[in-house]
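Table 4 source record.
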Amino acid sequence: MEIKGHVLVLPYPSQGHINPLLQFAKRLVSKGLKATIATTHYTVSSISAPFVEVEPISDGFDDEGFAKAKSAELFLESFKSNGSRTLTQLVKKHQTTKEPITCIVYDSFLPWALDVARENGILGGPFFTNSATVSAIFSLIHAGNLKLPVLLEDCPVVIPGVPPLNLEDLPSFLNAPESYPAYLRMKMNQFSNLDKADWIFSNTFLSLEAEVVKSMGDRWPAKFIGPMVPSFYLDGRIEGDKGYGASLWKPLDHGCTKWLATKPKSSVAFISFGSMVSLSQQEMEEIAWGLQDSEHYFLWVVRDSDKHKLPKGFLELTTKDQEKGMIVNWCNQLEMLAHDSVGCFVTHCGWNSTLEGLSLGVPMVGVPKWADQLTDAKFIKDVWRVGVRAKADGVTGIVTREELVTCLNEVMSDGEKGLVIKKNARKWRELAKEAISEGGSSDKAIDEFVVALKDILKVKR
């Protein structure tokens, strides 16, 4: 009888972390392993993917999740104590079945999961949901090779394999460590017990960050298994895999696809700032009028909680005359990016959105706000050259309507710069597809893990 191996996958309970880890679970199932997602009671009902089981654990806030916690510190402490206890119970529950859990792949934000694995005599490894470059930056801080805070006079910061980074290219916590102490600590804790892990997984691919990967070498011996984007948009080898299978919001069909079908090829700017970024009223107004002033059609995802920040009359203008633009509170981002009519992606440059833009070959306008989005925007503009970065106004710190119009024109026009960006976007789409297709670098890395896990289990038997 073939020994399958059973991997328990543990994401941090937010959309941007659940998506890639759930996608990895699906990849493992397609390779013949059994995979179970362990997630908080509050998010468990939002996750559903064929052949991947979903089991609840506790973060201590079972009814309302993170929203119920008074602070990020309190949530993380509670998740560590309650999560460790209930994850242990889950492992023990499976120990008596025909398919006991043999490995825990956990979000790198949750290093305590490795302690649970070790205490129960099973294997474990973290999954990093950001770029290899951002991991390299934080590993240097952890090793004491980069001191905080990073100030203007310390720049540019030179990291092997990475172009010189100025203050606006570095994760925002580095200049102001006190701004989000809990998140900075969480970033640093990723490396706390890394030397005890059996594997390290990173949601990127070799050709995308080749120089960084080379420079990291033995210090961070990760398996590069990305992009963790549904198979339909890349290699097509997982049947029916068109979406991640997790949504913490109620998807509403606003007829986005129907509306896009009425527009010419590559004529629409798709705007989405992810699930965490909340723009100020002033910036919302500038973006709104910038979209209205531009010569391009637009489809803008605006959460209900942010709708009141839109300028007076703007919503009426777009809903009354949907010829020019459409505002929705949710839509399937992958489906939109894959649509022929979409010619540009205005994004906050979160790593998942960046990978989706690259994987679907869509030119980007970066409007980064915090954390690793700033570094991702640097790569979008200067390394992969698949887009531009909107410059924030020196006084207000926001992107003005004029700047947005300039960026849209640069990316969507057929001028020299626009043509280079479009060509590079197509190139990276092919390289992403190649990495995850049979025999590609990411595919091989996943296969190596599957084979190693099975070999270890044979020995254990």
